[in-house]
Write a structure and sequence with these properties.
It is built from six helices and three strands. It is mainly α. The protein has a single domain, classed as Arc Repressor Mutant, subunit A (Orthogonal Bundle), CATH 1.10.10.10. It has a three-stranded antiparallel beta sheet. A hairpin with a 7-residue loop joins strand 2 and strand 3. Helix 2 packs across helix 4. It is globular.
Length: 151
């Protein structure tokens, strides 16, 4: 007999694949954003300029990976890298005007798509889904931040 956790794992993987499909289908605007670029730019839009190390911590990635991804958004003119005034050894990444516009356009397009996809969902269903996915993400964050493992 299959238990609920088995089905949840299958659905999470399916959601991961669908999220990639949504990313591809919602590419719009003058700049086509790769998934990693989109994530970094959204973080900067939501939380303001960030040290590269803080971005790596947020995404739980190796700093060298974030450095490469940051170089890509800087090359595209979507962000700029400056020296951190509080610690001149560190770099801070911030959105440019073009980057801000790209994030706004991409988010608007994605949100219109979600509106269309969820048009038959009641407000209660949307709220219930939001509550569940938020709780799940908070639980994952707790496990990752506290390096909890299963033996």
């Amino acid at each position: 007999m299959v238990n609920a956790n088995d089905l949840i794992e299958q659905q999470l993987f399916k959601m991961l694949r669908r999220t990639q499909a949504i990313h591809v289908r919602t590419a719009s605007g003058e700049v086509e954003l790769e998934r990693s670029s989109y994530g970094i730019l959204c973080l900067l839009a939501d939380e303001g300029p960030q040290r590269l190390g803080a971005i790596a911590t947020t995404f739980r990635l190796d700093p060298s990976t974030i450095t490469r991804q940051a170089q890509a958004v800087v090359r595209l003119g979507l962000a700029e890298k400056t020296v951190d005034e509080t610690d001149r050894r560190a770099s801070v990444l911030s959105l440019t005007e073009v980057g801000t516009k790209a994030v706004v356009e991409a988010r608007d397009h994605r949100r219109r798509m979600l509106d269309a996809m969820l048009t038959e969902w009641s407000e209660e269903e949307r709220t219930s889904f939001l509550d569940a996915i938020t709780r799940f993400n908070d639980t994952v964050d707790h496990w990752v931040l506290n390096e909890i493992t299963v033996e």
